[in-house]
Design brief:
This protein is of the alpha+beta class and 342 residues long. It has two domains: 146 residues, Beta-Lactamase (2-Layer Sandwich); 178 residues, Phosphatase 2c, domain 1 (4-Layer Sandwich). It contains eight helices and 16 strands. The strands form four sheets. The chain has a six-stranded antiparallel beta sheet, with helices on both faces. α1 packs across α2. The protein is elongated.
């Protein structure tokens, strides 16, 4: 059964049964002794193991593995399958990354009696198919949410997570983008957003004033105003203006800092609006430095606003508050066309 057949078989099953379909296929094709899928948890520090028909409703009750320093981390970082022999060479432990355009969903782990090149190629295909199945089926079931949650989320964090893009990272020929918020289980007013069109990568990073649910509600207003303007075809200045006006009209005297950024996919340049946010950091030739740009007033604070800037080089974007403290930043690179969160 090749990639198309695996996808077709999974499509016929219920959304929560996709993992079982892939596992049964691998058992039948290769005589696998065991097959399991390990989700990366919401905090990015653990993997939660899910085997055939052993799915629990809470990741806290499932088998958990520390990600840092593990072989699973090596597989996810390298995006390459790993194969080792055991039991005198009779069995082979195979771990394959389950990713979709750089989004590290988890890993597929199985034990095989044969690990020839053709078999390993088919395992990689199955892992690739599984990534597409998870991305598609998580729209219809909370199974994958349960698998990711090794800790409870506050109400504010639950609201905030619904504002984020469905994938925290994206890879394309012109760029690589990785985003994260830490601590992911309690954060409230911080958000990031991105989207693509034919010629531009659109990015935003915002930090609503306040704490807990109040901050997450302001963030909801902020992100949706920004998205609404962008989806209506507004240019960068108009997008910033509509976001600012929404805060003035509905923000109940709150404000938010943020950055709106548009990067040309051909690498020719970028435009940036900085609304009261810490200066972006630029990575060039291995050296990180602040970009000397003046910041406009925050969204929701009345006053004059200036035109967008054109920052050269790789921009390493960070949240407000204590700059760089306990936060994982977002980087983008219009110059070198590469970027990633450290």
């Amino acid at each position: 059964m090749r990639l198309a057949e695996v996808l077709a078989a999974a499509e016929k099953a219920a959304p929560m049964a996709s993992l079982d379909v892939v596992a049964r296929d691998l058992r039948g094709r290769f005589g696998a002794r065991y097959v399991s899928f390990l989700f990366v948890d919401v905090i990015g520090r653990k993997l939660v193991r899910v085997g055939e028909e052993t799915v629990t409703q809470e990741g806290r009750r499932a088998d958990q593995v520390d990600l840092h320093g593990s072989v699973y981390e090596d597989v996810l970082r390298s995006q390459r399958l790993m194969c080792t022999s055991s039991d005198g060479g009779r069995w082979h432990r195979v771990i394959a990354p389950v990713t979709n355009r750089g989004d590290t969903i988890g890993v597929l782990e199985l034990s095989l009696p044969d690990a020839g090149a053709d078999v390993l190629e088919q395992v990689e295909e199955a892992a690739h198919a599984l990534a597409y199945l998870v991305v598609t089926d998580r729209r219809f079931t909370d199974l994958y949410q349960w698998g990711q949650r090794t800790t409870g989320l506050s109400l504010a964090a639950e609201i905030q997570r619904q504002l984020l893009p469905s994938a925290p990272s994206c890879e394309a020929a012109q760029f690589a983008l990785a985003c994260a918020l830490v601590p992911a289980d309690t954060i409230a007013g911080d958000t990031y957003d991105y989207t693509l069109d034919h010629s531009t990568l659109h990015l935003s990073l915002t930090d609503a004033m306040g704490h807990d649910v109040d901050a997450s509600l302001i963030a909801t207003l902020l992100v949706n105003a920004s998205r609404g303007a962008r989806r209506a075809g507004a240019d960068l200045v108009e997008q910033a203006g509509r976001t600012h006006q929404a805060m003035l009209d509905h923000g109940r005297h709150a404000f938010a800092t943020g950055q709106l950024l548009r990067i040309a996919l051909d690498g020719s340049g970028a435009r940036l609006v900085n609304a009261g946010h810490p200066r972006p950091l630029r990575l060039r030739d291995g050296v990180v430095e602040e970009v000397p740009l003046a910041a406009d007033l925050p969204f929701g604070v009345a006053g004059p606003r200036s035109a967008p800037r054109r920052p050269p080089g790789a921009l390493h974007r960070r949240h407000a508050g204590t700059p760089g403290a306990n936060r994982r930043p977002v980087r983008s690179d219009p110059g070198n066309r590469r970027g990633a969160a450290p």
